[in-house]
Amino acid sequence: MKITVLGAGNMGSAFVQQLTRAGHQVSVTARDGAKAAAVAAKFPGAMAVPTAGAAVGADAVVLATGYGDAVAALTSLGDLTGKVIIDITNPLTADYMGLTIGHDTSAAEQIAAAVPGAQVVKGFNTVFAQVLTEGPDFGNGRKASVFVASDSAQAKQTAAAIAESLGFEVVDAGGLKNARYLEPLAGLNIYLGYGAGLGTAIAPTWLRKA
Predict the structure, then answer these.
(1) Which domains, and CATH codes, for the chain?
(2) SS3 per-residue string spanning 110-162
(3) CA–CA separation, 134 vs 112, rounded Å?
(4) Is the pLDDT at 207 greater than 80, yes or no?
């Protein structure tokens, strides 16, 4: 697939690494063009592109910015009508130990409302950057799970195909409003991993009986 990664931080860089490794055609863009170029230079096959028009021709855009920057970053790309947007953000407090919104809405729903022509899917928000970088295999047949939630069947299928190409298990988490559950799950994950010191291997994996 042709995939644009929007953001050049830890998660954006990890996505570029794994997407190029999986054979996808990857473009990366960010508010800091030099940072995007540095990320692209690390992974053969990736290409840094200007923000304006970065989504043109892309099968999906991975939104790898902080939640507070998400809407501005997306709108800077230009027309997103019909585009699949994979929202990996979490609305975290400054200390990363809480959420700024929830219960009756979610980051994903707020982003979808701000870019109404796009097809937004929540996904990868429960996966640590380290797990994405090192791969989803936890040994003994256990793999980290990616939960996908969207009101668009196409967006959900696209996100699931990308996750599977990276080796993750995929769990269909229903409609976009279920991001209200996935974002607190990510918050719990972050607390366990960092607040409680259990490490990034605590990333949730839902086990299925054979």
Answers:
(1) 2-202 (3.40.50.720)
(2) HHHHHCCCCEEEECCCCCCHHHHHHCCEEECCEECEEEEEECCHHHHHHHHHH
(3) 30
(4) no
